UniProtKB/TrEMBL annotation:
Pfam families: p450. Belongs to the cytochrome P450 family. GO terms for molecular function: heme binding; iron ion binding; monooxygenase activity; oxidoreductase activity, acting on paired donors, with incorporation or reduction of molecular oxygen. InterPro entries: Cyt_P450 (IPR001128), Cyt_P450_B (IPR002397), Cyt_P450_CS (IPR017972), Cyt_P450_sf (IPR036396). The keyword Nucleotide-binding does not apply. Pathway: Antibiotic biosynthesis; vancomycin biosynthesis. Gene3D superfamilies: Cytochrome P450. Involved in the coupling of aromatic side chains of the heptapeptide of vancomycin. This is Cytochrome P450. The lineage of its organism: Bacteria, Bacillati, Actinomycetota, Actinomycetes, Pseudonocardiales. It comes from Amycolatopsis rubida. Keywords: Heme, Iron, Metal-binding, Monooxygenase, Oxidoreductase.
Length: 402
């Protein structure tokens, strides 16, 4: 593969199944300019530094074509950009306003509820044992949707809407040149539907309540840190991201364990290792594969200088498999001692707001699965990958349980 033709290969059959050998080719150079004009960086040191460097802007409106990128997804000039596409001073202002429920102390208070939800979800699987279940449809989606839905005060009958919208959003996570027109249309329609639904929720929450959204609305009216359009856009964004990454982390993680039976046996023998295992699974096969930035000035990566106004994709998946940072990077190991040094959910001021919540939910799900089912195996080679370059997940994972 010629690295400059990377995106031509990223849409071919087989890339989603085996991206890491191709990503290794990107690491051979400090930075690679593709035929699309986008620059790619995949070395751990460069990616980790870039995630913290203010010279790499998250304000994608600086880059060519990004107004159309957002319009094609139903976000036009009437709306502010979501949290992940903002620079200071707007980014810290919005992040402070929305992140309180995702901070360590808040997530710690949620642990009993998360454990109970995981137990209930796995109870439903146990009722079908022995037999074959689809881990994605039967656990990986329902568990985080029940938790984020409860957090936002969304009625349970509406939870299936979240899954439908989430699948549509995930399908348009890639740059436009990698998408079909049908995917863009479905993504824009999901954005419109979810935005209208969320707007109705906000109107109801003006009367007060005990859920996260009610607290956001009360805060908006009390200190005006967020405007109503900002609340709507970021509410929709966090509602989707708040469970989508968890869905993929649960599914990717379970598949990785099934393909590494010694590691699965290690967790069965010592379930206290599950929290450590989740971080290694995040490194090994992260749900989020890229972080896109725009150069605010001429920006050096190694001996290459990337011109101001260029789009740069920081390849988190490539960085997490960099042998300069991780010995035997393609091996799943729970003894690395590097903990959260991986870049699975980013790093720095734009690290995933809900990253800790996703890890705790995934740990609860895996702990229940490995302790409840002595038989837990893949039911044939029929897993189906999400056809995406930027996100890595599974549409289907049949499991035999007993």
């Amino acid at each position: 593969m010629n690295a400059s033709d990377f995106f031509d290969h990223a849409v071919t059959a087989g890339y989603a199944d085996q991206p890491y050998p191709r990503l290794a080719g990107i690491r051979r150079s400090a930075a690679v300019r593709t035929t699309t004009g986008v620059w790619l960086a995949g070395r751990y040191a460069d990616v980790a530094a870039g995630l913290r460097d203010p010279r790499l802007s998250c304000d994608l409106a600086r880059g060519a074509g990004y107004a159309e990128y957002f319009r094609s997804r139903g976000i036009d000039d009437r709306f502010p950009l979501p949290l992940n596409a903002l620079d200071p001073p707007d980014h810290p202002r919005i992040r402070t306003a929305v992140s309180a429920e995702f901070l360590p102390a808040a997530v710690e208070r949620m642990r009993p509820a998360i454990a109970a939800a995981a137990r209930t979800a796995v109870d439903r699987l146990a009722a079908r044992a022995p037999g074959v279940v689809d881990l994605v449809a039967d656990l990986a989606y329902p568990l985080p949707i029940s938790l984020i839905g409860g957090l936002f005060g969304i009625p349970e009958p509406d939870w299936p809407l979240l899954e439908r919208w989430s699948r549509a959003f995930g399908a348009v996570s890639d740059p436009d040149w990698l998408l079909t027109g049908a995917a863009r249309t479905a993504g824009a329609e999901a954005t419109r539907e979810c935005g209208e639904y969320f707007g109705r929720l906000v109107r109801h929450r003006r009367r007060g309540g005990g859920d996260l959204l009610s607290r956001w609305v009360a805060g908006m009216r009390a200190d005006r840190r967020m405007s109503l359009p900002e609340l709507l856009v970021n509410g929709v964004f966090l509602l989707m991201v708040g469970h989508h990454n968890t869905v993929s982390l649960i599914a990717n993680g379970m598949l990785a364990l099934l393909r590494a039976p010694r590691r699965l046996a290690q967790l069965r023998a010592d379930p206290s290792l599950v929290d450590v295992a989740v971080d290694e699974l995040l490194r090994y096969d992260s749900p989020v594969q890229t972080a896109t930035r725009v150069t605010a000035c001429d920006y050096p990566i190694g001996e290459t200088v990337i011109p101001e106004g260029s789009t740069v994709m920081l390849l988190l998946g490539a960085a997490n498999r960099d042998p300069q940072r991780y010995p035997d990077p393609d091996e799943l190991r729970f003894d690395r001692g590097s903990g959260k040094a991986h870049l699975g959910f980013g790093r720095g001021p734009h690290a995933c707001v809900g990253g800790l919540l996703a890890r705790v939910e995934t740990a609860a799900a895996l702990r229940e699965l490995i302790t409840r089912f002595p038989v837990l195996e893949q039911a044939g080679p029929e897993e189906r990958r999400v056809p995406s370059f930027s996100l890595r997940g599974l549409e289907k994972l049949p499991l035999r349980i007993a």
